[in-house]
Amino acid sequence: MPIYNKLVRDRIPEIIAQSGKTSSTRILDEAEYIQEIRQKMNEELAEYKAAANDEEAMEELADMLELLHAAAVIHGADFNRLEAIREQKAEKRGGFRERIFLIEVEDD
Fold it and tell me: Is the pLDDT of residue 42 over 90?
């Protein structure tokens, strides 16, 4: 029996049961949940980095987006608030679309 010990999406136990298998789960406390969300973000980022094509990359980005939704709630906001903060930062400092790579800044 494989042991996973990781945060999974809400319907995974149901999907496992529908396949005729049994699983054991538990509900994480708040501190564990925050830790596991962060761990899962690292996992999904690694999978995004390893993606072999655009389709795989988009799947991993979708997973990361779902985690961002969950993380926003952890920090007392919702995704709309997170998006508003992103928009404010983009207006003030720009985005990343122009592909600017900073090499150095001359000191005085």
Answer: yes
Looking at the structure of the chain, the number of domains it has is: 1
Dump pLDDT digits (tens) for 14-25.
Answer: 999 999 999 999
Q: In this model, does residue 1 exceed pLDDT 90?
A: no
Residue 12 lies in a domain: no
88 found inside a domain: yes
> What is the percent of the chain with per-residue pLDDT over 70, rounded to a whole number?
100
CA dist., res. 48 & res. 77, Å (int): 26
Structural domain boundaries, residue 42 = 29-93
40: in domain:
yes
Q: Give domain status of residue 75, yes or no.
A: yes
